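Our consortium's second objective concerns turning raw sequence data into structural hypotheses that experimental partners can test. To show how far this objective has progressed, the report includes one record in full. It was chosen at random from the queue rather than selected for favorable results. The single chain below, 462 residues long, was entered without modification.
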Amino acid sequence: MPRHLLITACNFLPILFFFFFFFSSPVVVLTAAALPDPCAGRRVHIRRLPPRFNTDLLGHCSTAFPLADHPSSTPSCASLANHGLGPRTHNRTRSWHRTDGRLLEPFFHRRVLDLPCLAADPAAADAVFLPYYASLDALPFVLEPAMLNFSAIHGVPLAQFLERDRPDVLKRNHGHDHFLVLAGPAWDYAQPPESEPRLWGTTSILRRPEFVNFTFLTLESRAWPWQEHAIPHPTAFHPPTFPRLQAWIARARRSRRTSLMLYAGGVSRPSKPNIRGSILAECANRTDNVCSLIDCSGGACALDPAHYMIPMLRSRFCLQPPGDTPTRRSTFDAVLAGCVPVFFEHASARTQYGWHLPPERYDEFSVTIPKDSVVLGGVVIAETLAAVPEVEVARMRARLLEMAPRVVYRRHGTSTAGEMGMDAIDIAVDGVLRRIRKRFKALQDGQAEAIYSMDDDNQEII
């Protein structure tokens, strides 16, 4: 064979081998059915509600829920900016906002719209989210004296709407798959409907039989939270990107801690002995750099988070005494600052936020000093904290900052959600989905009483 024909034939050998192998071997075809469904068990339907149950309620902003301090320096309704995150604290920041926690409901609503597994058909959904701004709808009952005696009907118009409009959505699972948000402590919404006289500042929506199977996400739950689950108080930090989240955590990690302990909150002395009064008395008697006091009375900390965050960055421990209710927003400010929280009762956090901050790990990132030992037993807080070895404090701080992204409410519209990991809302929604699955299983197994179990509230969402 001529040499040039031999070379040409050799050039075709790989092609001939490919055709022989392809047509003589079994063909494997990957279909969509063979791939795992990333939304299996995670589909959420957003129930369409008339505006009177959500957006119309924002019209109360100029009178009912303005920022607490310096109203003349804040434009009317400024707290509604950025879908409830509030205005930016200054022009150069992209992460820090003047956030009013009472507006968690519209912000949560906006973030749910970003979920990757939304279902247009409620029949195809695993959970049904009700974008009802419940705490805002309660304002007439708690602000207008003439409405006080009618606070038992809070939520009744919503119940009537759900029973009348597409009743099949509610009846399909008897409400066990429904969830909504309450921007406040559950106790404020749990007055028995038949109570007389009515207690000022409370309603009865959590006691309404129409909602008995719903899951309520609250800022503070009751001691038997089979109906509700606590989620973190919103802080002022809402990073839009992963690098901004990383940058803040790096700053908190390298911050120089020159003060032993810090208390940020109201500084008025209580009329009778309690843990807050003991803290104020102990700090007032110190002339060294052991205790820092940040006066947040009258909303002094609402407009500028630097007022308390910078001192927190400089402190090793942040004291978290209970106030009007056991929980405090300051707890989550401390987590972000890497300032080890000091609790004086379990109800302040350990029994509240099990999905976000698992109870069995509290000794890894916090200190607990029983309040009675301080108020009645003469225990000195500063001495107790000074005795904690510095290596142990550093370990707790490192663990705290590892968990910080879990209590952050990421800004809506974030395109790097996967990179940033799960934030407070992602964890809350996953917790609700897990709770619904367990309820369905209990009902299918004929163990209806198991839906009242609180075991789920102590299990971390990963």
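The partners drew two points from this record. The chain is about 35% helix and 10% strand. The beta strands are 44-46, 127-129, 178-185, 215-220, 228-230, 259-265, 291-295, 315-320, 340-343, 367-368. Both points have been shared with the crystallography group to help prioritize constructs.
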